[in-house]
Amino acid sequence: MAYIEIEDMQFYAYHGCFDEESQIGTNFRVDIKIQTDTTVAQSSDNIDDTVNYLEIYQSVKRQMSIRSHLLENVADRIASAVLSDFPLVEHIWVKVTKLNPPLGGKMYGVSLAIEKERGH
What is the per-residue pLDDT for 20? Predict the structure, then answer.
């Protein structure tokens, strides 16, 4: 088994419970780590034998464009979409961070991480 990580994907989106968040939007960061068998690709050197990073990114981007109130919903949709669309992915860890959230204080962000496995 191998792990593929796509780190620090940046998106501008409209997720949140507050009216301002749905109107103004904010910056988000998404990190994912997937577990997959790369044995065939290691020998073949063919992208068709592994998980295509561009296609994963496009899947994440589609999910980030769908407005949600909660980071829990966003992260679960991303994890479910990747598992559904990429049969070689056995396990996924997704972290969604809302940067500079409107909580009345200075902070980098708030995050939610979720893990899912194929068949569960």
Answer: 78
